[in-house]
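Supplementary Methods. Inverse-folding protocol.

Structures were first reduced to a discrete structure-token string of length 245. This string, shown here, constituted the complete conditioning input.
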């Protein structure tokens, strides 16, 4: 009987996880109102306490997949401005900064760590409350990390909107945040042009990048990446197909 109930719980949990990954913002809010997240967190805490690793809880700290999934979720959280104050503490910022050097799972962990920090940095100097690592150090380490990422990196990611990224493209208060956002657009439109060039056009990203190109404030690396994206989007379809072949 206990095994039967457990199996039903596992199936229900996996279904909820799949549902949460697919539904839109308002539908996700409904899941939140039902306190499903709180129930699942309690369930996971119990498993961690008992050191149980199964198909529901996919690994522990030495598992690259778990780390990637956790950072995917943290990246989603960091897109919500009112939650930034909850992430702005020394413990979190230190961990995210360390993850900039992670070698697990391609660049996904590094990319998401940089994304989380980029959102926090975008709030300006006055909002940065962490003494160590300080804001200048975090900016420097993000820039150094991005410079090592191959633009051809394959991604395990699915953007339905570029809204949060485009907000950072407009961010002149933190060149690290702007650098991360423009790199993301350059990578996604290069590796997955069929999907993301269309999305970028639909959301007005081309004009935002043109404004970045006309502005004297961005660093050279940002200007160069922005130009790559603009050129790629404006490229005739025939030429684009020849390059992809």
């Amino acid at each position: 009987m206990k095994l039967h109930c457990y199996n039903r719980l596992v199936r229900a949990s996996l279904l909820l996880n799949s549902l949460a990954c697919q539904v839109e913002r308002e539908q996700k809010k409904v899941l939140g109102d039902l306190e499903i997240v709180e129930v699942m967190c309690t369930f996971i805490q119990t498993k961690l306490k008992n050191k149980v690793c199964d198909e529901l809880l996919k690994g522990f700290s030495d598992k690259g997949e778990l780390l990637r999934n956790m950072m995917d979720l943290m990246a989603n959280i960091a897109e919500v401005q009112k939650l930034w104050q909850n992430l702005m503490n020394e413990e979190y910022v230190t961990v995210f900064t360390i993850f900039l050097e992670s070698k697990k799972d391609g660049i996904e962990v590094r990319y998401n760590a940089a994304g989380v920090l980029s959102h926090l940095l975008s709030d300006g100097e006055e909002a940065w409350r962490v003494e160590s690592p300080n804001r200048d150090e975090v900016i420097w380490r993000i820039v150094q990390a991005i410079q090592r990422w191959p633009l051809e990196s394959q991604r395990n990611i699915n953007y339905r909107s570029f809204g949060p990224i485009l907000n950072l493209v407009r961010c002149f208060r933190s060149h690290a945040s702007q650098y991360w956002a423009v790199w993301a657009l350059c990578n996604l439109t290069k590796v997955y042009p069929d999907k993301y060039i269309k999305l970028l056009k639909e959301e007005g990203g081309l004009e935002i990048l043109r404004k970045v190109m006309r502005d004297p404030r961005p660093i050279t690396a940002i200007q160069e990446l922005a130009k790559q994206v603009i050129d790629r989007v404006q490229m005739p379809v025939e030429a684009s197909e020849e390059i992809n072949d």
